[in-house]
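cache lookup: miss for this entity combination. No prior model stored, computing from scratch. Input as submitted by user K.M.:
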Amino acid sequence: MVEKQRGAMRLAACDPAALALGLSGGMALADARARVPELAVFDHDPAADLDLLGWIADGCERYSPACMIDPPQGLLIDITGCTYHFGDDGVRLAKDLKQRLRRHGLTGQIALGATPDSARAKARYAKQAIHALPVEALDAGDKVHQALRRAGLKTLQDLACRPRKAFAARFGKATVVTLARLLEEEDARITPRRHVPVVSVTQNFAEPISRTHDVLDTIATLTGKAAAQLNDGSQGGRRFEVSLFRSDGHIARLAVDTGAPTRDSALLMRLIRERIDALSDPLDPGFGYDLIQLTVPTADILLPSQAGLDTKVDRSAQTEALIDRLSVRLGRDRVRYFEERNSHIPERAVVECAAQSGQPQKDWPKPAEAEPPMRPFRLFETPQRVEALASIPDGPPRQFRWRKSLHHIVAYEGPERIAAEWWRRKAGHEQGKGGPTRDYYRVEDSEGRRFWLFRHGLYSETDAPIWYLHGLFA
Amino acid sequence: MTQDAVYAELVAATNYSFLRGASHPADMVLQAAALGLSAIGIADRNSVAGVVRAWVAVKKAKAENVLPPAFRLVTGSRLVFADGTPDIVAYPKNRKGWGRLTRLLTVGNMRSNKGGCILRFDDLAGYLEDLLLIILPQSTAEETNPHKNPVEYSHADGGEKLRLVEATPADLDEVMLRLKKLAPDRVWLGICMHGRGKDRRRLEEQRAVAKQCDVPILAVNDALYADVTARPLHDVLTAIRLGVSVDQAGTRLEANAERYLKSPAEMTRLFARAPEAIAESQKFLNQIAFDLSQLKYEYPNEPVPGGWAPQDWLEHLVRSEAERRHPDGLPPKWVRALDEEFTLVRQKNYACYFLTVHDIVHFARSQDPPILCQGRGSAANSVICYLLGITSVDPVANNLLFSRFLSEERDEPPDIDVDFEHERREEVMQYVYRRFKRHRAGIAATVIHYRPRSTVREVGKAIGLTEDVTARLAGTVWGSFGRDLPEARLIEAGFDPDNPHIARLHVFVGQLLDFPRHLSQHVGGYVLTENRLDETVPIHNGAMADRTFIEWDKDDIDALNLLKVDILALGMLTCIRKSFEMLRQTGGGDYSLDSVPTEDPAVYAMLQNGDSIGTFQVESRAQINMLPRLKPKTFYDLVIQIAIVRPGPIEGDMVHPYLRRRNGEEKVEYPSPAPPHDPNELHDILYRTCGVPLFQEQAMKLAMVAAAFTPDEANGLRRAMATFRNSGTMPEYKDKMINGMVQRGYQQDFAERCYKQIEGFGSYGFPESHAQAFAHLVYISSWLKCHHPAIFTAALLNSQPMGFYAPAQLVQDARNHQVDVRAIDVNFSAWDNEIEASALRLGLRQIGGFHKDWAVAIAAARPFTSLEELARKAKLPARALHLLADADALRSLNLDRRAGGWEARRTPSDELPLFAAADARELAQEPEIALPVMPVSEHVAADYQMTRMSLKGHPMEFLRDMFAAEGILTCAQTDAAKHGARVKTAGAVLTRQRPGKGNAIFITIEDETGVTNALLWSRLFERQRRAVMASRLMVIEGEVQRSKEGVVHLMATHITDRSHELERLSHDHDVNVPFSRSDEFAQPVYPRHGHPRDVRLLPKSRDFH
């Protein structure tokens, strides 16, 4: 894994094989390459790492609700009072966790400690004896570590047996506090990771429910409750998450996103139903759900709007609702709009994008005043081949035949010469392999119709250029 | 097609419009001529940097009769304005117009940071006399970067008329009307037909507007490249300029390939509806009477006192000095030499040049203390330079060839290079600016070309390769510095050359190499003029403060016959000056460069042992090996010693014949020509080098005497030898030389060998004069090392960075010479390394990151008895205290490194005002904390980390038991081993070098007993690349090879990286045994016969900065 750090590509993480070759994190990629030319590298993706960590944390909620991600690579679980499943034995819990991780192909370093700091330090240094840990376990910054080491104080043992006053005078109180926590003399609680959602409503069942109908009914009730809570705060949700806790510990989560903030429970139910219908694997209730939870993780301000007496419809809101609805039903990628792209080639100048992916482009270039449009109103997706008569080498067309009818050209403007995008062709940089150049003409025929024609290939590129009709002006 | 169409393209850019033009100036003009254009106008963006190259190309092509004689080149510049004014292309009508143009550009350049030019319409209005102006309808300006504190520069010369400030015109009509008023009959509207769709409509519109304003229209193509095939390259350049890849650049690329040079027929066809625009190009051309050859050049007159003519003053100075040196009358040889030189100088009118150099040297010597300086290079062939004190070599006594410096036949200016102390060169440079003023003095430019590494990186990015791929590709270019990216390199790096992306990269890299990338300033070449320099060439701000440089480089200056003085920096001169100073202070005598006792046998005895670390030039690995073989006994042997360890003599296979002859193992013979020629003709040339040509002058003389070359031809041969770009012309000289020699009765076989030897100089040989000048410094530095090793080492350390070796090695060498080296200590050390009762006391400057003003404060506030007192009295910040503690410089306060560091942590730094009054001790006594004792190995490691050396021991000492148990020998044991023995040695890596053709890697390792030199053949290297490149501590296994002079080499077969063993010393301090400065892996140097940028007549030694 490589990452750009301090202006150079550096190794961010190595697999065991690379470590065995003497490579390590922080090394410049160029140096690593020089040593191992056959090195395989991939871009470091910290976001993906964090996602994975989040996924693991989700799973760990089975042990305790108090899980906390300790970036970049750590996970803290407060198991105080949560070990009854394992016979009040933290070690057995740890073994269980380790096994589960291994099943997913993950290697974890697990340690138990009376304080989060001590547990973290033990895990990090893979040692159970806190006194044997190096001073770096203090995590107090390189300068402090260096200073301690320079003074010959290399392990926590060296620190533990010396008067703390001397450390406080040099490295500040915080260091001493950390030391106390590491030595399990002082405790600190962790902040659980799942941040408090804007709205959270739950429904408990004494008897697990398993029929889809019941589930939907419950969700409908919950959305109603949530909508009421949102309304109180003049808020509208942007994301709604339904968590279905199965009695065997499995959690199914469904989420719907909306393009604009909403608290319309009918709309939400429609979206949720569509989402459930669209699931590739239908909901598997197993032995039934014993708890259903609806949370709104993100919300925006949504002021109540007064519908006017003339019931004027908010068009953009309608469009967005339609886009949301169609996108949920047909799939995100199926509802699309146009976006301008940076290319000289007309058919590549504009592309389609998923409508939900962002705001549609609003600032289309405006034509200059008193300038005729240089691009046609209608552009054929595939240019249509025509037979045309033109003077050599690069004269305008005199007449052309399209769909069997002959058009005599009475006026023209051009050529507008657009060269092919050579970089899209395999050997495009070589002479004559960059693709044919197009000469576009705006023409008007004897009946006043206006066309956009092009000659495909200059005479220096080909002997017999072919003509195409690429679009129609109004 | 109309054959009789006459047209001249007047708006053409070259690749000196950086990242916009895609053709070399020469390609542009040759293509223009080939297309039948009547002329071409080269106009780069706010620059005239490329015009000289175009002009040279035309001159050369005309001389070779490949250009129609009527073809013309006109030179100007495309003015791009920062205020929104459309681009205007300006051509000077005459010499005066050229001056206006260059001054206009200078005005813009001076406002901007290096490389930029900020012009406004008003500037043009102030300088448009004698300029012809073509208005282009749009502006191509981009954001500009104004200079924060521009250097003081006088633009005014009193000739300006009072005028109102011209505001920026609002639109095209207004530009035309206003310019028309300012410059009637000198304004055109340039119209292009680039296939934009509405070209015809626009032509009509603009024609109408132009007619209204009574401005003629002119057909131009605004060409960016010579041939239509250059479009992909141009797109790549655009992408590089925009910092994106080609496929993301989209509409910011040109839509089509129409910006190539078009033939008159094609232009006529495009402008069929406006034939007057085509015809106008001829009318425009007819108004231009300017050609670059009109740039007449006058050397500054300042140094001549009133009432004297420059030549007379020069002769007066030289002759009075000659008489002073020869009170009994000049020997006839001198009279002849002086007469010859004076005649030539008078004829060429170079007197002012010599006087100017003399003036600069005189300034340096008159400073207090004087700045040491010495001329180098071919100037040492001149008696005038010798007598003016510019050079220190007596050319008469040494029989040097004056025509190497200056000759009648050769129409090129002489080149005087003077070295100054590297730390004080800036004083000399600022003196030059002061004396001649900024508008009359400028440093020459150096054109930075695209080199393989940068090209691969930039092109790779532009064609969309990811950074790690380009980094890997750029990485593989290490060691190869060819013009091309050889396929073998690609395969080596694991890329398939047939992969389309790689193939594309390969092609573009090939095309882009040698393109100019940007202008930089030359290391020290000044161009000075009597008249305004900015009326000859635009002046730019340099990247360094207070430096201004001109737009033309050395080749351009040569082509235009401008003279330049090289003011170079030499570290050894600084070191020598500091040594002399310390000698004076310690009562060791008062010496100067010429008063050091000569021909001291002790000095030669030392050198014969290869004991030369720290000395000038002969301290390199190769030189140290050569010293015991050559065994220098006299000064002239040093001259040979310097010259022989060069790629030239080595590749020309002259080293062994010379050594054999010198040692009497081979007969010294001088082949003779057939009668009637003088049978001794070669003897006179070659007797001093035992019949083997070692110097450039000898090669020239050999060609002149034995093959009857004219001096001119001999000089051509020299140039061909020196510049690889001309290597294509070497074969011409080959036939001429061999045939010439055979005709005069030499054996074919001998002639071929001679030629081969001369060919070897292609990869640089030394001129004898240069070797003489350098040998002088070799001798002085060796003398200092021999008799005053402590002072010499202190001076070397105080002059860092310079030379081949890191401080640790210099100090180690001094200790080996029984110098008592004392550790850094706050109560004794100053900033500099000093002599303390004949011992060397290391200075605070050796502590990485320490500031000089701290050191000065410490020295002023001494003595101290506690850390607190030190902090208070010297007002040191916390960082300084920590550095002192970490460097273990507090021993005299009874604090070792650990205790010092611990104490420093709680010592308040800079006194707080609140406590300033309270003089009492503020810090309470602390309970004893009893820090663990630091082992010596850790002290050594910490010493290396802080000061890059240790007096307490060598890191290897602490690993010795472990290595000994493995049967690994010390360096000393290896040195004593028998020839042919297979041994293993371990040590810290000092240098790794891959000289010459790269067949072998030289590795030097060091341990507590000394050094071992190992040689690894490159085929073995490839297999052990990782170990060689990563090791800081390596075990080398190999066979001992002992030469008959006793030089021991370890022929390495197997190398193991044991760097991790260093961690055993300390976990907290990186044992960073520094590579010496000559290590090529840590500081890659480009092989010498490489890029045109590096081509100099004299190779750069590692010593010049």
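stored under new cache key. Chain B touches chain A through 62 residues (CB under 8 Å).
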